[in-house]
Amino acid sequence: MLTLIMFAVSLSGVVSLTVDDLYPYPYDNVTTTDDQLLRRNDDGSSSAIPISFPYFNNVQTSAYVNTNGDITFGTLLGDYTPDAFPNGSYVMIAAFWTDIDTTHVGQIWYKRNNSSDLLTRAASDVQSAFSDQKHFNPSMVFIVTWHKVPYYGASGKYSQLRNTFQIVLTTDGTKSFVMFHYLRLDWSRNVMVGFNAGDGLNSYTVNGSLSDDVVNLVHRSNVGVPGTFVFRVDGVVIQPADQDYTSSKTGMCYPKA
Question: Is the pTM of this model over 0.70?
Answer without folding.
Answer: yes
